[in-house]
Amino acid sequence: MAGVYYVGVDVGTSSVRAALVTGGGLVRTTAEEPISVWEPKADHYVQSSCEIWERCCSVVKEVVRGVERAQVRGIGFDATCSLVVLDQRFQPVPVGRDGDPQRNVVMWMDHRAAEQAARITRSGHRVLSRVGGVMSPEMQPPKLLWLKENLKESCWNKAAHFFDLPDFLSWKATGSLTRSLCTLVCKWTYCPPEGWDVSFWTAVGLEDLLENNFSKIGSQTSPPGSPLGDGLTQEAAADLGLDPGTAVGASLIDAHAGGLGVIGADVRGHHLPCEGQPVSSRMAVICGTSSCHMAIDHMVKGHAAYSRLQEQAQQRSPFTGENVYSYLNNHLSLMASSCSAVDLLGSSLHVWPDFHGNRSPLADPTLKGMVRGHESRFDVTYDVKRSTDSQPQRVIGLPLSQTLEDLALLYLATVQALALGTLHILEALREAGHDVRTLFLCGGLSKNSLFVQIHANATGLPVVLPDQLEAVLVGAAVLGACASQDHSSLQEAMGRMAKVGKVVQPDQEVQSFYQRKYKVFLRLMAHQREYQALMNPR
Question: Which of 58, 182, 306, 434 is deepest in the core (most CB within 10 A)?
Answer without folding.
Answer: 182
